[in-house]
User: Which sequence fits this backbone?
């Protein structure tokens, strides 16, 4: 009888625990949600994250704030989310550097970009990113840019947001595939790199369309090409890198939205639905279309598969660039 009684108490406790957990998930969110953007304010990731956060705040009925936590090419802010409680209240929004940082800096990055996080949604820009130069560079194509670079004693400089960031990988791929003499200059984020590009302190950059479009349209920087499989919709006159004579040069830009690993699926689903609903709003779609950013939310499972493929691709690039041993 005593064993039966103890078993009954245990079952009751487990049932109560499960009910409490379900109740907690059902109540989500009941306090402030913090989205970490691991780059300095004012950059492309910021331009995407802030309007989404404002819309999600209205949709979810809870305060949603952006916290910029920059440093180490996005590693510092990303690491803080990896170690956060898996309760849906500390989230990450970042770029393809999420994968690249681990591939190109395996000993410095302590988290696993695939295993330490739960993907919520992706914004994948299949048009790629863009190659831009300072406005006074006497070149309007990849080939003429290469010719000009070879006339300079030390070649040209390109700004990037840290080793492993897509801006760095693209610059190194251009150096490798075109034989262009280039030297990389690291910044805390692409907003700072673009500021120096406009000021003529750096010669060129690879940057997301959403971060560069305003400066291109105003003539402050010059557009050379895009890196996707098709021409950018907002810049139909600019060739792809493939069309410019580099058939193996294809780089997709993307933003991702993640929670820490072990975040309950119910919470991930709730966040994805809010993200998707925010992206469907007319003002957000209009803004993102104007910026040249993606306007379709990639769901968690599909985004996870994309990330696995991207990890393999970036490992191949790293081997080609000599950053990892074969």
Assistant:
């Amino acid at each position: 009888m005593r064993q039966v009684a103890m078993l009954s108490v245990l079952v009751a406790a487990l049932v109560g625990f499960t009910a409490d957990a379900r109740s907690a998930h059902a109540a989500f969110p009941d306090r402030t949600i913090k989205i970490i953007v691991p780059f300095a304010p004012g950059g492309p990731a910021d331009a995407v994250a802030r309007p989404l956060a404002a819309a999600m705040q209205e949709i979810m009925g809870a305060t949603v704030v952006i916290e910029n936590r920059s440093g180490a090419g996005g590693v510092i802010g990303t690491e803080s989310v990896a170690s956060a409680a898996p309760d849906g209240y500390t989230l990450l929004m970042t770029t393809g550097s999420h994968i690249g940082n681990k591939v190109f800096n395996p000993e410095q990055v302590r988290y696993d970009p695939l295993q330490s996080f739960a993907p919520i949604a992706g914004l994948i820009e299949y048009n790629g990113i863009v190659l831009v130069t300072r406005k006074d560079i006497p070149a309007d194509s990849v080939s003429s840019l290469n010719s000009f670079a070879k006339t300079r004693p030390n070649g040209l400089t390109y700004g990037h947001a840290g080793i492993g960031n897509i801006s760095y990988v693209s610059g190194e791929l251009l150096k490798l595939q075109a034989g262009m003499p280039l030297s990389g200059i690291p910044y805390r984020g692409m907003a700072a790199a673009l500021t120096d590009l406009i000021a003529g302190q750096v010669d060129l950059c690879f940057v997301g369309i959403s971060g560069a479009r305003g400066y291109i349209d105003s003539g402050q920087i010059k557009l050379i090409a895009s890196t996707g499989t098709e021409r950018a919709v907002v810049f139909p006159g600019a060739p792809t890198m493939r069309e410019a004579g580099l058939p193996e040069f294809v780089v997709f830009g993307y933003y991702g939205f993640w929670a820490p690993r072990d975040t309950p699926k119910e919470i991930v689903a709730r966040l994805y639905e809010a993200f998707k609903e925010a992206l469907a709003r007319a003002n957000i779609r209009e803004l993102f279309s104007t910026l040249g950013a993606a306007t379709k939310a990639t769901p968690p499972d599909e985004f996870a598969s994309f990330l696995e493929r991207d990890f393999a691709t970036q490992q191949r690039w790293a081997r080609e660039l000599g950053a990892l041993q074969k």
The domain at 130-226 is CATH 3.40.190.10 (D-Maltodextrin-Binding Protein; domain 2). DSSP finds eleven helices and ten strands in the chain. Residues 9-15, 17-22 have pLDDT under 50 and may be disordered.
